[in-house]
Every structure is written in C-alpha cells, then in structure tokens.
Amino acid sequence: MNKTELINSLSEETAFSKKDVTRVIESLIRIVERTLKKGDKVALTGFGTFTLSRRPARKGINPATKARIDIPAVRVPKFKAGKQLREVVRSF
Questions:
Q1: Closest among 17, 20, 22, 19 to 3, alpha carbons compared
Q2: Range of the domain at 71
Q3: I need a surface site. Which of 1, 35, 36, 44 has the fewest CB within 10 A?
Q4: Dihedral sign for Cα atoms in the order 33, 37, 38, 43
Q5: pTM of the predicted model, to two decimals?
Q6: Angle (CA) 21 24 26, round 5°
Q7: How many domains does the chain have?
C-alpha cells in the first residue's frame, strides 16, 4: 500500500475528505521527523516505536573500483513493532 492508497482507505473508513486525511498524514510524518531529529522517540502504543539508531563509521570497498573507502557514522531511523501489531501479523 502506498501513501495514495492509504489516504483513500482512511477516507473511506472515516468519512473524512481525502484533503483532510492527507493533511493529517503529512502532519504526522512531519511530527515524527521533527521528534526523531531532536533525538526523542515516538511510541504509538500497540503499533510500535520509532527511534534513532547510530551506525558507526566503518571501512568499505567501492564495488566498481575496488578502492577502499571510509564510510562515516550516521544516525538512521528505526521502527520496532508493538505487541498488538506483532500479534496481528502472526495470526495470518
């Protein structure tokens, strides 16, 4: 399911307009991004938790040239599914 399909499904299920649903989803995404940027986590009980993880610097190899390269440390977003979501997925 992509963003457009999600908007359509939410609009049908809630009877809100697609425009309103789009604004809510875009606001949710901005809030999650802003919260993670500050270094905080976003926990949605039953659904899951968005956090930041640190990937350390490491050595790598450029596959095209076989040259050794330094890959810098980065922060990456991480999602851990909540108990309710895990149970729903397992029940299939």
A1: 22
A2: 3-90
A3: 1
A4: positive
A5: 0.80
A6: 105
A7: 1
- At residue 47, the pLDDT reads 96
Nearest to 71 by CA among 62, 80, 79: 62
Q: Which two tokens stand for residue 72?
A: 């810098």
- Residue 76, φ and ψ in degrees, nearest 5: -130, 145
Instruction: Please provide residue 19's backbone torsions phi and psi, each rounded to the nearest 5 degrees.
Output: -65, -45
pLDDT per residue over 29-80, tens digit each? 999 999 999 999 999 999 999 999 999 999 999 999 999 999 999 999 999 9
> Is residue 92 over pLDDT 90?
no
Structure tokens at 90: 């397992």
